[in-house]
Amino acid sequence: MSGEQAVLVWARGLNIGFNGRVVVSGIDFDLPRGQAMALIGTNGSGKSTLLKTIVGLLPLLAGELKVFGGCPSSQAKRIAYLGQFHTSGFVLPLRAIDVVRMGRFPQRGLLGRMDSEDEGLVRRAMRTMGIEALADAPLRTLSGGQQQRTYLAQVLAHQADLLVLDEPTSGLDAGGRDLYLHAMTSELSRGASLVMATHDVHEEAALCQQAILLARKVVAVGPTEKVLTPDTLREAFGLILDGEHRMAVLECRHGPDGG
Fold first, then answer.
1. Rounded distance between C-alpha atoms, residue 198 and residue 249, angstroms
2. Do residues 35 and 188 make contact, with C-beta atoms less than 8 angstroms apart?
3. What CA–CA distance (Å, rounded) separates 131 from 137?
4. Is 82 helix (H, G, I), strand (E, B) or coil?
5. Tens of pLDDT, residues 195-233
6. Distance between CA atoms of 127 and 104, rounded to whole angstroms?
7. What is the rounded CA–CA span in Å between residue 245 and residue 236?
8. Angle, alpha carbons 202-224-45 (nearest 5°)
9. Number of CB atoms found within 10 A of residue 18's CB
10. Which of 89, 144, 158, 217 is most exposed, with the fewest beta carbons within 10 Å of its own?
11. How far is CA 17 from the centre of its chain?
């Protein structure tokens, strides 16, 4: 295996699943520092399960998986994870800025005092996602797109070495998607690596150097331009071409992911 400085996530013969049931088997990939990888597939294809395995929320069922050269849960402080479902803002009366400040908890702890550097990172993250004016707004009063921007700002405030994002543009309008793409490009430029799950082929093809196409099996893995071909997309989704030869997908489901 390459050294930690070169490869942040490494998998060989990896089987993933939940409750002891395999969802996808035989996954092999390397994610180098400063690169982005998209997990592309329909609902139930295994994307969320793989993300949760990478961050240590689900145990691997077979094979090998190294994150920063160790077991997936050994470097939690260095990983920012954004799942699909968020409950904190509806259980507690949190403001948007309180949610973004949670991105500093891995470094400071729940009871640790934030200093001016932390506050600067929080404010910068909110500015990057265009929500600085909403800092004192209760999270529950924000629109779905504003809430998603808030959680993405939390990820940015973490300043993590590895970003693991599940459907990060869900609910975002065109402006929010542009801000997200700009933010992720900046994260990659500073040396962070990125793994994201999506079913949006066009968007992630513009950002990611690598892709894994999933359909409860590995359809293809490798450089994005070699993975996202008409043949592989047809196998994973069902593919149609419009009159201008742009790719579009007709989703076919593969059963529950469990993620």
1. 13
2. yes
3. 10
4. strand
5. 999 877 776 677 899 999 999 999 999 999 899 888 888
6. 16
7. 19
8. 75
9. 19
10. 144
11. 18
Look at residue 147 and give its three-state secondary structure.
helix
3-state secondary structure of 168: coil
**Model pLDDT, residue 5:** 55
What crossing angle do the helices spanning 144-158 and 174-189 adopt, rounded to 10°? 10
- What number of other Cβ atoms are within 10 A of residue 79's Cβ? 23
| Cα 219 to Cα 28, 48, 95, distances in angstroms | 12, 16, 42
62-67: strand order across its sheet: 21-32, 7-18, 62-67
How high is the mean pLDDT of the chain?
A: 87
H runs (alpha helix) in the chain:
47-54, 88-91, 96-101, 105-108, 116-128, 144-158, 174-189, 201-205, 224-227, 230-236
What is the rounded distance in angstroms from the CA atom of residue 133 to the CA atom of residue 110? 25
* End-to-end C-alpha distance for the chain, whole angstroms: 28
**Burial status of residue 113 (CB atoms within 10 A of its CB: 0-12, 13-18, 19 or more):** exposed
Nearest-angstrom CA–CA distance, 197 and 81:
12
Pairing of strands 193-198, 36-40: parallel
Query: 144 CB contacts (<8 Å, ≥6 apart)?
Result: 171
Distance, CA of 9 to CA of 76 (rounded, Å): 13
- pTM, two decimals, is 0.87
Contact (CB, 8 A) for 17 and 258: yes
Which band of pLDDT confidence, cut at 50, 70 and 90, is reported for residue 246? low
Tokens encoding 178? 């542009």
Q: Which of 121, 53, 40, 117 is nearest to 81 (CA)?
A: 53
Q: Phi-psi bin for 197: left (phi > 0), alpha (psi -120 to 50), beta?
A: beta
